[in-house]
Each structure stands twice: as C-alpha cells, then as structure tokens.
Design goal:
alpha/beta; 6-stranded parallel β-sheet; 3-stranded antiparallel β-sheet; 13% strand
Length: 391
C-alpha cells in the first residue's frame, strides 16, 4: 500500500506550482482529480509541443492524475465541484487573486461545510498585504525576491533557467499538506495551508538575506563563481571548462599541493583563508588558470579526482538524461500518455519499501464519464452536460 492510497485530492490548478504539489501527492498514491477548463484545459498544456505533440511542462507535472473538464462558471459545473469536494480529503487551488472566492469555493466556506477538509491556496504574494492582488509569474517573483540581483554576471542579471519560485511554492505546499494530514490524524480536524511564491522563494534566499541584512553588503553577481567562497566556479581548460569547489582551508592546501603543484600557496597570506581568497579572487583565478589552461578537461578532472577535490563538468540537458549515475541507480521509469510510452524520473525522495506510482499523463477530460458516473450522473445527463459545454 502506498502511503497516501486512501487520500483523495481535488485540485483546481494551472501552470507549475499547484500541479507540482499534487503530482507529488499522486506519486505517493493519492487519487488526484484535476479540474480543467472545457476545450483548453490547464494552459500549461499549450506551452510547447516538444513531447511528441504534448507540452513538456504538462507531462512533467501531471502524471498519475485524473482529468475532468468542468466549466466552474456554470451552475451545474459548480454542483459537480461541490460533490467532488464533499468526497475529498484535500482541496487545492492556485488560480489568480480572489478567483476561487468569486466562484464560491473559498477555503473558509468549504471548511465550514467540511470540517475535516484540508484546503491549500497557492498565490503569488499571499492573501493579505498591499501586493495581494498582483499577478505573479516566476520571473517577477525572482525579481521581487532579490534573486535576480545576485544571479548573472557583473554586467547584467539573469533569470534562473527553471521556474524556481513556482517549484519552491509547490514543494512547500506539498510538505504543508502532508503536515496537515498528520495533524488531522491527531485532532480529526482539517486545516488551511497557504503558500505564496514570494515567501517560498524568500526561504531559499535565506543566506543572502542574512549576509546583506546583517553584514550591510549586497552580494555581487559573480557568474558561475560564488560571491563569498573562493575558489568556487569555472576554470578554463584547453578544450572547455571544469568546475571546482573549495569549502575549507584544509581543502585549499591540498588543492595547492596535489593539483596546482604549488604547496607554498597554501600558506600565502593572500590566500590562506577563504576571506582573503575572496578578496584576492582575481589574482587567485589567474594562478589557477595558468595551471589548468594547458590541460584538457579530462586531464583536469582526473587530477582533481586523484586529489579528492570536488569537481564537475558542464553537461547539456541531453548529457544529464544519459548520466551514468541515474542509469546505475535505476532512476528512470516508463509512463503512459496520450501519445504513447514516455520516460520519467522517479521522485527524488526514496522511501524504503515504497515504489512511487508512475501513472498515465491524462488527456483533457479523459475521466469525465468515469468521475461523473461515480457521482450518480447517468449517460443522458453526461451527454447533455457535454452538449451544453458544462464539461
């Protein structure tokens, strides 16, 4: 039995944050019923068509779910959602500001009717405060949280290449829901879980916040290098780049001796401590570059490995897909989809004795008939709802 096999989730979700949270619940066995707009569905279905015609975002975020298309602005559509919520343990939504309230499904209203229900709201800025009505997309939260100010080069900021604000919010919603389920076991009462993208990414900004807030100095953008640790970043080789990370002074001395062949540098006052190495970073990188530039990347990787110094090479995404570590640990599984079999990575938390559910990516409204029949709708009514555009 999977840990959440007896849990039902109803979700009015879109894009990344909400779908990521519920997909992780589905991985652990929860039944996740995804409410989508008739005709178009979750707009993430249309971000691209890279996966044999399906959206890469949608495939990533929506396996193991059931899709029902419902027009929630239609009174009969609202009644369908009411019936589904009445039979569920969790209700999650990440629509725009106040959208779920306008539809009549606020968390306060639902939990008054269903005291054991766990509700979860994911928003851009939270349910209160001067920014509560602002639309929030991942890039905008990266900007508002200060992340863009420390990401990129000295010349210009750069967006982080994946949707880190959405991902952070989705993961905190997932963990918050799990905690609410544990609380309900003890109290027999539901809870409301609220997560904002700004506050989720704010948690990930903890070290820069303390550094700037108490140190009085903003972190500077340093490209692939670390603003407060050196050497930590890329080093050019004869045919590419190698990445190194020195975490303490003992590692630095070993690096000087075994990799650079200059043990005297380990005690040089310009480089003896991390603080001094950061202060003299430009000269430090010149010295390291002088040793690495005649070597191939393979030669540099071998020397670093022999010395026990942390290192890596730059992989493309295709390189990552073929990574030997993933293959050795059997991390890939096959899932079904409307376009046939696809490969998917297992979720990262490996629980002893539990094989996560790796189910089908649903087509839009694929489960309309099955879900509505279970709610008591007959074939004639289902056909009428379809003809009237309710489903």
């Amino acid at each position: 039995m999977l840990p959440l096999e007896d849990v039902t989730v109803v979700t009015v979700e879109q894009a990344v944050a909400g779908p990521l949270a519920t997909r992780h619940l589905a991985d652990l066995g929860a039944r996740v019923i995804k409410i989508e707009r008739p005709g178009t569905g979750d707009f993430a279905r249309h971000y691209d068509d890279a996966v044999h015609g399906l959206s890469s975002h949608f495939v990533w975020l929506n396996r193991s779910k059931e899709s029902i298309s419902v027009d929630l602005k239609h009174e009969e559509g609202k009644r369908i959602l009411e019936k589904l919520v009445a039979r569920s343990d969790i209700f999650l939504e990440n629509l725009g500001p106040d959208a779920i309230e306008r539809l009549g499904f606020s968390a306060k209203h639902l939990r008054t009717q269903h005291p054991r229900l766990i509700t979860c709201e994911i928003s851009g800025y939270g349910s209160s405060g001067p920014f509560r009505h602002r639309k929030a997309y991942d890039l905008l939260i990266q900007a508002e949280s200060g992340l863009l100010s420390i990401t990129g080069t000295e010349a210009s900021p750069s967006r982080v290449g994946i949707s880190v604000a959405d991902i952070a919010a989705g993961i905190y919603a997932y963990s918050g829901i799990l905690a609410a389920l544990l609380k309900r076991q003890k109290t027999d009462e539901g809870s409301h879980v609220e997560v904002s993208l700004l506050e989720a990414l704010g948690e990930w900004m903890g070290y820069p916040v303390y550094y700037a807030g108490y140190g009085g100095m903003e972190l500077r953008r340093a490209g692939t290098h670390h603003a407060t640790i050196a050497p930590y970043g890329d080093v050019p080789t004869d045919d590419g780049l190698v990445f190194i990370g020195i975490q303490n002074d003992a590692e630095w001395r070993r690096f000087c001796d075994k990799v650079l062949g200059q043990p005297e540098l380990g005690g040089d006052t310009r480089f003896a401590t991390n603080r001094s190495r950061v202060e003299h970073r430009e000269r430090l990188l010149e010295i390291i570059g002088g040793v690495f530039s005649p070597m191939t990347t393979a030669e540099a990787m071998e020397r670093l490995a022999e010395a026990g110094i942390a290192h890596a090479q730059v992989n493309s995404v295709l390189d990552f897909i073929a990574h030997p570590q993933l293959a050795a640990r059997n991390r890939w599984r096959e899932i079904d989809s409307p376009v046939g079999k696809l490969s998917a990575l297992l979720p990262p938390a490996e629980i002893e004795g539990v094989e996560p559910r790796m189910g089908r990516v649903p087509d839009l409204g694929e489960h309309n008939r099955a879900i509505l029949s279970a709610l008591g709708y007959d074939e004639a009514t289902i056909r009428r709802l379809r003809e009237e555009g309710v489903i």
